[in-house]
Amino acid sequence: STPIVDYGIRADFSAALGLGRFLEGGISLPVSLYQAGPGVTQGTAAGDLQIHLKGRVYAGEHLSAGLMGTLFLPTGSSAAYTGSGQVAFAPRLAAQARVRWLRVGLNAGVLIRQDGGLGQLSLSHELTYSLGIGLRPFRRVELLGDLYGSTALLAPWQSRDQSPLEAVVAAAVHVGPVILAPGAGAGVVNGYGAPAWRLFLSLRYEREQAPKTQVVVAPPPPSPVYPPPPPPPTELAPPEMQVEQTTMYRGNAEVAVTATELIPTKAIFFALNHSRIHHDFLPILDAMTAVLLAHPELGRVRIEGHADITGTAAFNLDLSRRRALVVREALIRRGVSAARLEIMAFGSTRPAEETGARGNLARDRRVVFFHDRAAQQRTANRNGPL
Hints:
With 386 residues, the chain is mainly beta. It is 12% helix and 42% strand. The protein contains 4 helices and 20 strands. The strands form 3 sheets. Strands 1, 2, 3, 4, 5, 6, 7, 10, 11, 12, 13 and 14 form a 12-stranded antiparallel β-sheet that branches. The longest helix has 21 residues, at 313-333.
């Protein structure tokens, strides 16, 4: 066998746009900046333009699945080995399972194209596959591993030259909307197209569009007149941080009523990707109901839902909304007027703590309570999406 390209430098440019909650369109273009080898050109050359369309068909609490199609347009140069010189189409099925700080992804599909050749190889339709794993030891860091390859569709894994396989490892660092991922890869089965080794650096910017309107379940009644409230205390603050007048309800649980917030001594948390209330927190709901019924002067109460960062921003926003909504419905069943209760969803934009320790993610899966003027002030000063 003879190497086609001894070494080279390549850049890939990609962009994608969400088209609603379940559809995404994208485009990408590989560009060979420099390469050297037997008979190849050394100048800059574009590769085949790729147009992507992805659709989510299932989104559960621990499992999600979707379909993806990629159309390859012959904008590259077959003589420079930067393109195939023909139109091709690659439909794929993708699935991902997520449990706490671990996620595993799998996709499989086919590459449909005309018969062609590369040296002495005869190339036709291919079966493509990829297996990936992600470990998140810290809030803003994820360790990634990927194994991907292809083989002849009609004669799978019968020829080593036609069954390339590559392994890749990387570390993704999340800094706000920017994700930086350095990594390296090497050919496991050095068929055509697989490198002896590669180094790469990925730079990605992701922006989630916030909903245009806030999530309010019931229109608020006229608010009673209150003096200007002090700054809200830290979320999940213990009762020792109370300000001004404080009323305690003592039973199976306690709730501190401050000038701005209702703080249960045992905060209501949720399981990963769940919006069901655990039975351990039912006494808190009973205590919260007793406080609201005993103190109508508190007026309207805003229930704010939160999520951790182990899902997409859109999924976390919806999950936090469902968490706030299920708490609201539980209070209504206990006798609190629906007109006094509204919800707000923040997704993963307001973590309970800035530290990225894995054990602190559970503190982000929570709801918090603000009453009347405090809720209005919090809305005016919000930084996260509604």
